[in-house]
Amino acid sequence: MIGKRINLVLFKPDLPRFKILDCHLEIIESLMWGFKNLGFECTFRTNEVDYGCINIIFGWIVAIQLMQHGEEFPEGTIIYNFEQYSTESMRGKHLLEQVAEKYQIWDYSIGNVIRWKEMNPKFDPYYARVSFAPNLMKIPRTEKEDIDVAYIGSHGLKRISKLMSCAGTLNRNAIVNMTNIWGELRDGFISRSKILLNLSEENPAMNIFEIVRVSYYLANKKAVLCDFVPGLEIEDDVRKVLKFVKPQDFGKFCDNLIQDSTARKDYAEECFEIFRQRDIRNVIKDFF
């Protein structure tokens, strides 16, 4: 494998509404660590492919829209998909058929991989599950966790309030809700938080567990509390350790975890140890 060159590319227009594509950055960082530790030369660029190496594309739908009419990615390009397709057939969807006919697909979801295979793609789709790298452990540690509950996502305070108010806990806890916040500002809030919430989509068509978001919390030993949504696609290892709580029990369960620092720390450590067993180098080696 020595001598192989990889270019990780995030396609992201310089407009505020596309800042959400920064959600790929921790995946990119973990892959860079993995490739370099396996002897690859690995670079990262925004909106720019390298015609002299293998390119792995993030934000591929935006990428295709940005490219000139008729232009294609270089030979050997890998499309890393993080969209959700596991609940319905891809057949008849021109963009998906076009990608399957031309490029190697990596996908974070085994459900998505099954759908890609139904397309009779040019290359066998690869299940590139979200995995651990030590460079993800970068959230600063603080003894003063002055935020009880933090949620980073698009569901908003209305849904959080509904979950927390089941036990009358809403007004007793310090709750922070952030949308489209990344980098050091986001990490500072995560550091100060006792519990990080993960709220899954209630739409059955969006049934894949938010492992990209949650994996970053797990890598930094933060306690994660998830709402229970029937039919959610969850990988077996994290299903066994993460706490998925039904709405009627959510507020009380959250309160107990806030008040018991020992239980909270032990829970976070247990989840970290499980996630750490996913070594990003294995994802790379198993493909190449």
Summarize this structure briefly.
With 288 residues, the protein is α/β, with parallel strands linked by helices. The chain has eleven helices and eleven strands. The protein has two domains: 5-133 and 279-287, Rossmann fold (3-Layer(aba) Sandwich); 136-276, Glycogen Phosphorylase B (Rossmann fold, 3-Layer(aba) Sandwich).
Summarize the structure in words.
By secondary structure, the chain is an alpha/beta fold. The protein folds into 2 domains: 138 residues, Rossmann fold; 141 residues, Rossmann fold, CATH 3.40.50.2000. It is 38% helix and 18% strand. The chain contains 11 helices and 11 strands. Strands 2-1-3-4-5-6 form a 6-stranded parallel β-sheet, sandwiched between helices. Strands 8-7-9-10-11 form a 5-stranded parallel β-sheet, sandwiched between helices. Helix 5 links the parallel strand 7 and strand 8. The longest helix is centred in the last third of the chain and has 16 residues.
